[in-house]
């Protein structure tokens, strides 16, 4: 079994095949897919691949995606973890919350746990996050995580912002 992460409100466990239904619910939610999936509804095969890639990256590199289980509400509210995007040198921070659980600090809380894991367990020299320029909520999370602006790129005709947090223990 791979590493579980814990915060004051969350139990975070690696995504697995039995999580297909909840991941489909999250990834096809209109609010989530607006920024995460370029507003496209992912077909079941792509969600299955999403799970498979996460399982493979846990096997190969001890990272992937963790489901966020709210201990008090006793339910899965989203996911967070590391995912490879845009041919970057290492995976980036990624998270998604069901809309009922936004604006409660869960994204920041889960992201802090992932960053701590990356820095303390995996010894990453830094962690990046990228998001659409129009995604103000993700910008606020990056700021709360004390990430710094790295660059702006146009990807598929849209402006994408990149933020970075450096591991001071490695730097």
What does this structure look like?
This protein is an alpha+beta fold. The protein has a single domain (5-166), classed as Gcn5-related N-acetyltransferase (GNAT) (Aminopeptidase, 3-Layer(aba) Sandwich). Helices cover 34% and strands 30% of the residues. It has helices at residues 20-28, 30-36, 44-61, 106-120, 136-144, and strands spanning 5-6, 10-14, 65-70, 75-83, 92-97, 126-132, 148-155, 158-166. The strands form two sheets. Strands 1-2-3-4-5 form a five-stranded antiparallel sheet, with helices on both faces. A three-stranded antiparallel sheet has the order 6-8-7. Helix 1 packs across helix 3 (44-61). The longest helix has 18 residues, at 44-61. The mean pLDDT is 92.
List the helices and strands and how they pair.
Elements: E1 5-6, E2 10-14, H1 20-28, H2 30-36, H3 44-61, E3 65-70, E4 75-83, E5 92-97, H4 106-120, E6 126-132, H5 136-144, E7 148-155, E8 158-166
Antiparallel strand pairs: 1-2, 2-3, 3-4, 4-5, 6-8, 7-8
Protein name: GNAT family N-acetyltransferase
Organism: Spirosoma profusum
InterPro entries: Acyl_CoA_acyltransferase (IPR016181), GNAT_dom (IPR000182), N-acetyltransferase (IPR051531)
């Amino acid at each position: 079994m791979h590493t579980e992460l814990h915060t004051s409100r969350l139990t975070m466990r690696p995504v697995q095949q039995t999580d297909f239904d909840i991941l489909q619910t999250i990834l096809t939610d209109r609010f989530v897919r607006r920024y995460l999936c370029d507003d496209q509804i992912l077909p079941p095969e792509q969600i299955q691949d999403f799970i498979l890639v996460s399982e493979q990256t846990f096997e190969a590199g001890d990272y992937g995606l963790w489901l966020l289980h709210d201990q008090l509400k006793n339910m899965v509210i989203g996911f967070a973890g590391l995912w490879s995007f845009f041919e970057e040198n290492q995976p980036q921070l990624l998270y998604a919350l069901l809309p009922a659980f936004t604006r409660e600090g869960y994204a920041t809380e889960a992201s802090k746990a992932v960053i701590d894991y990356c820095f303390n367990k995996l010894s990453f020299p830094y962690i990046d996050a990228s998001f659409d320029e129009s995604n103000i909520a993700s910008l606020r999370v990056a700021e709360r995580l004390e990430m710094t602006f790295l660059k702006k790129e146009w990807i598929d005709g849209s402006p994408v912002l990149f933020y970075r947090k450096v591991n001071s223990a490695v730097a």
